[in-house]
């Protein structure tokens, strides 16, 4: 089978999609990876060939504004809509033409935000599976709009609030991106969509949700083609730990890992406040800077820094992860049973922080720019209360049980074999009934 796997050129998107591509090639399928130049090597390393971004503008995810100057600081619902419009939707026609240039394929598997696959699937009638690489953003009658960072309302007043917000977003932001999608579709000689642009990101045949029900707000109207598949984790990169690693292992204090991932990497947001707050907290700190290094006088005596750290070595020895909430890093920590302190401030990160707190596996600081004392207090809380680690281990067991890339490829093979939508066996993944799960009376 010839499969095209599409990943938006972001580090957090390329890694899980490369895990899927690797499982497909391991089963003997021919895989063409459509992604940006920066991440082509992730896919060729697992046996895929590479189809570059050419008609769609390739970009550097560490300097998004260089290609998309309209993108702001990523804070708030309007920023989410701007990103959707300029980075994901307006590149859609170019993506579709690039994908079609790769030649005929038997199956399309896309990062849900790589909208070109859905457009090609419609034009060619090719089976299509989408992968939700962030928490589920599908609209629901049980939830506030994705991007607001709000927990589901409780009781009659809370449900009324959520309904009012859904109506407001539909009249404003959704209407705007619907118009953009109509224009993109016209470029490809496709008629206007019959549903919202928000629906265009998810396949009507099969959606693979990168995560587990324990990290999602329960909803009674989850579409039947959505399947949770746990963590889509690539194999360890084989990176050696830094030279200072044995020093931290020899120290008897709890190890705290601080990271801002690969996006939103201004150290003034989280890294520097965390290091200041934890300097006298009775812990040792392993800080990942993402790129470059922090000034020596900003790194206290109980901390060490490196651009990147090998999670297969680091996480089994870590007591708490302090993060700005990138989904891939959150899942990696929880898969290792490590509780979290999350400072989510931009795009989907506040949504992720709320879900971590709801699961009981961590603390939500409710800001992307916490004060040093707030970080220290949250770490102390997690270290003092074994319930956080217990819940992290529950989530870890669920992530393993849902099967990861193996389960995901089983499902996409089933999609091709059966030639139609792939329904879930369990109508209610939360096992409690949609009404009860959302606080309905």
From TrEMBL:
Any Pfam family: EryCIII-like_C
CDD domains given in the database record: GT1_Gtf-like (cd03784)
Domain Erythromycin biosynthesis protein CIII-like C-terminal span(s) in chain numbering: 283-399
Signal peptide start-end: 1-21
Keyword field: Signal, Transferase
GO biological process terms, semicolon-separated: antibiotic biosynthetic process
A GO molecular-function descriptor: UDP-glycosyltransferase activity
Keyword Signal among UniProt keywords: yes
Superkingdom per UniProt: Bacteria
InterPro entries cross-referenced by the UniProt entry: EryCIII-like_C, Glycosyltransferase_28, UDP_glucos_trans
Keyword Transcription regulation listed: no
Protein name: UDP:flavonoid glycosyltransferase YjiC (YdhE family)
Source organism: Geodermatophilus normandii
């Amino acid at each position: 089978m010839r499969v095209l796997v599409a990943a938006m050129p972001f580090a957090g998107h390329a890694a899980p999609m490369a895990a899927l591509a690797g499982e497909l090639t391991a089963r003997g399928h021919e895989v063409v990876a459509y992604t940006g130049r920066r991440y082509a090597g992730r896919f060729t390393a697992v046996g895929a060939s590479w189809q570059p971004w050419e008609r769609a503008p390739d970009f550097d995810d560490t300097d998004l504004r260089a290609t998309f100057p309209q993108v702001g600081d990523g804070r708030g619902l309007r920023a989410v809509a701007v990103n959707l419009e300029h980075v994901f939707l307006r590149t859609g026609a170019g993506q579709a033409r690039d994908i079609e240039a790769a030649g005929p394929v038997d199956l399309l598997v896309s990062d849900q935000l790589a909208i070109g696959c859905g457009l090609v699937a419609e034009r060619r009638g090719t089976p299509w599976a989408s992968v939700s690489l962030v928490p589920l953003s599908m609209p629901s009658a049980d939830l506030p709009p994705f991007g607001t960072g709000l927990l589901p309302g409780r009781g009659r007043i809370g449900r009324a609030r959520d309904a009012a917000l859904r109506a407001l977003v539909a009249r404003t932001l959704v209407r705007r991106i619907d118009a953009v999608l109509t224009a993109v579709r016209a470029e490809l000689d496709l008629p206007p969509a019959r549903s919202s642009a928000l629906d265009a990101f998810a396949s009507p045949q099969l959606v693979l949700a990168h995560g587990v029900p324990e990290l999602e707000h329960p909803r009674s109207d989850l579409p039947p083609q959505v399947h949770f598949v746990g963590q889509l984790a690539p194999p360890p990169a084989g990176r050696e730990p830094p030279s200072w690693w044995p020093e931290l292992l020899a120290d008897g204090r709890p190890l705290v890992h601080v990271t801002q991932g690969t996006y939103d990497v201004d150290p003034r947001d989280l890294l520097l406040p965390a290091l200041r707050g934890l300097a006298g907290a009775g812990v040792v700190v392993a800080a990942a800077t993402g790129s470059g290094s922090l000034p020596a006088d900003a790194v206290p005596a109980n901390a060490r820094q490196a651009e990147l750290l090998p999670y297969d070595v680091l996480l089994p020895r870590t007591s708490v992860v302090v993060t700005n909430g990138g989904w891939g890093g959150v899942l990696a920590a929880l898969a290792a049973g490590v509780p979290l302190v999350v400072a989510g401030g931009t795009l989907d990160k506040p949504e992720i922080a709320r879900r971590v707190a709801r699961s009981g596996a961590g603390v939500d600081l409710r800001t992307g720019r916490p004060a040093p004392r707030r970080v220290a207090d949250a770490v102390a809380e997690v270290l003092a209360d074994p319930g956080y680690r217990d819940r992290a281990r529950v989530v870890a067991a669920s992530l393993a049980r849902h099967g990861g890339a193996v389960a995901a490829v089983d499902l996409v093979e089933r999609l091709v074999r059966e030639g139609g939508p792939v329904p879930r066996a369990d109508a209610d993944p939360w096992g409690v009934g949609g009404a009860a799960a959302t606080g309905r009376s």
